[in-house]
């Protein structure tokens, strides 16, 4: 993630001074996952893939803020978020109970490394996600610019359980039917979901599929090559580390906003 960006904001001013937005929709995908939409502040400009700080007022009256990837594309008039429910998590133990009409705190400043500008031009874009790490990619695969820049966009999503794939499955299906993005994405967006702890059509960690070459075989494409392939990575620290090692092995280099290269990485959470 961007080293300059705060992940938690404990020294923030009293919550009443922070801007709020109104919840417009909430959807629960499983016992552990939900998504929600909020009104978008007029002042918020962002690039698809970036994150903002959102939260609620804590019991002590202080704001309780966490980093959240914006899951909706830059053109959407509302903002969408996709969230974990951590049983004893300070924020999500409460955030999971929000309802349409409720207010949440949202700081209208977006940052992040998972942006198209941080990559050198290429032909094939790989989006590697585990768990809620799919959120920034939910934004990018709904952005026409992604398809203007790449001939092929491959979204891989690895989760423990089948239920945790549902958000991504529905998202990919919706892109095809979307009046704005569908035409751009047609024949370009490919989806490679895998599960590790429950049976599904393709089982196992994406890292193992990359090392064995199974993913290239199943998709009918050549192995990752620095001349053509670009990558974005969003998962746990261990996942990011393993994927980076694999991408380095294929000859790709990590890039940043200030110095574009062949792949970029951001943590889906801290811990
Ligand atoms: C750049 C960035 C972007 C993020 N974007 C999202 C997002 O789009 N959606 C989202 O749900 N979370 C996201 N997070 C994580 C988020 O900031 C919070 O950690 C999460 O909402 C839980 O908050 P909490 O206060 O309930 O628990 P915390 O005290 O923040 O976390 C408690 C523990 O739960 C685990 N955990 C926290 N978040 C996750 C997660 N997302 N997936 C798996 N395990 C987790 C970790 O082990 C952590 O130590 C992001 C984090 C970063 C750094
Ligand atoms: N049923 C439950 O109780 C349940 C279900 C979901 C989440 N949770 C809670 O939510 C938290 C986050 O869970 P999560 O499932 O979203 O995140 P996660 O533990 O990071 O796992 C998400 C997916 O990433 C894979 N993965 C993890 N490390 C990897 C690596 N180094 N390389 C390749 N793949 C890797 C996992 O495979 P592996 O399975 O092989 O590790 C899993 O398929 C957990 O700490 C847990 O407490 C609980």
TrEMBL record:
The kind of enzyme this is, by top-level EC class, is: oxidoreductase
Instruction: Supply the CDD domains for this chain.
Output: FNR1
Give GO BP annotations, semicolon-separated: cellular response to oxidative stress; heme catabolic process
Q: Which UniProt keywords apply?
A: FAD, Flavoprotein, NADP, Oxidoreductase
Residues annotated as coiled-coil are none
Which Pfam families does the entry mention? FAD_binding_6
Swiss-Prot/TrEMBL catalytic activity = 2 reduced [2Fe-2S]-[ferredoxin] + NADP(+) + H(+) = 2 oxidized [2Fe-2S]-[ferredoxin] + NADPH
Say if the entry is tagged with keyword NADP: yes
Which InterPro entries does this one have? Cbr1-like_FAD-bd_dom (IPR008333), FAD-bd_FR_type (IPR017927), FNR_bac (IPR033892), FNR_nucleotide-bd (IPR039261), FNR_type-1 (IPR051930), Riboflavin_synthase-like_b-brl (IPR017938)
Q: Which cofactor does the UniProt annotation name? A: FAD
> What EC number is given for this enzyme?
1.18.1.2
Tell me a Gene Ontology molecular-function term this record carries: ferredoxin-NADP+ reductase activity
Give the domain of life.
Answer: Bacteria
- Supply the PANTHER family for this chain: FLAVODOXIN_FERREDOXIN--NADP REDUCTASE, OXIDOREDUCTASE FAD/NAD(P)-BINDING DOMAIN PROTEIN
* Family statement: Belongs to the ferredoxin--NADP reductase type 1 family.
Q: What is this protein called?
A: ferredoxin--NADP(+) reductase
């Amino acid at each position: 993630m961007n080293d300059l960006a705060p992940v938690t904001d404990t020294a923030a001013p009293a919550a009443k001074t922070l801007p709020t937005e109104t919840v417009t929709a909430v959807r629960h995908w499983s016992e552990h996952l939900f998504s929600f939409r909020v009104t978008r502040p007029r002042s918020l400009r962002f690039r698809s893939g970036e994150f903002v700080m959102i939260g609620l007022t804590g019991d002590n009256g202080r704001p309780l803020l966490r980093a959240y990837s914006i899951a909706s594309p830059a053109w959407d008039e509302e903002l969408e978020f996709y969230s974990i429910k951590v049983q004893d998590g300070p924020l999500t133990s409460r955030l999971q109970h929000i309802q349409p009409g409720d207010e949440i705190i949202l700081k209208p400043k977006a940052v992040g490394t998972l942006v198209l500008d941080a990559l050198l031009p290429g032909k094939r874009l790989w989006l590697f996600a585990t768990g809620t790490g799919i959120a920034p990619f939910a934004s990018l695969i709904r952005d026409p610019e992604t398809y203007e820049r790449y001939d092929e966009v491959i979204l891989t999503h690895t989760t423990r359980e089948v239920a945790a794939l549902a958000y991504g499955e529905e998202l990919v299906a919706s892109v095809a039917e979307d009046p704005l993005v569908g035409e751009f994405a047609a024949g370009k967006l490919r989806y490679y979901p895998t599960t590790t702890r429950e049976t599904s059509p393709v089982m196992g960690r994406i890292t193992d599929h990359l090392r064995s070459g199974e993913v290239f075989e199943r998709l009918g494409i050549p192995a990752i090559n620095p001349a053509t392939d670009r990558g974005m990575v969003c998962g746990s620290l261990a996942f990011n580390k393993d994927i980076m090692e694999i991408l380095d092995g294929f000859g790709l280099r990590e890039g940043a906003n200030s110095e574009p290269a062949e792949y970029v990485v951001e943590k889906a959470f801290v811990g």
